[in-house]
Amino acid sequence: MNESDLSGSGPMVGRRRAKALPFAALLLATAFFRSTQNAVQTTIGPFGHILLKLSPSIVGFGITLAGGIGALANIWLARRLRSLRLRLVALAGLVGISFAISVVVLGSSLPTYLISAVIFGASGGLVTTVLATMASQVPGVARDRALSAYTVALSASLALGPFLESLVLRASGGSLKLAILSFLPLPLLASALLFLVVSDVRQSTEIDLAASFPAHVLKNPHLRQAIVALVLYQVPFVAITSFGALIADYSYGASISLAQLSFSTFFVVSLTTRSMLVWKPPGRRRVLVLRLAALVTLAGVLVLGFGHGLIWLMVAMAILGVPHGLVFPVSLSLVAASTSSRDLTKANALLFAITSSVSVVIPFVLGVIASYFGYREMSLLVFVPVFILAAMLFRTKVDTLV
Question: How far apart are CA 267 and CA 294, in angstroms?
Answer without folding.
Answer: 18
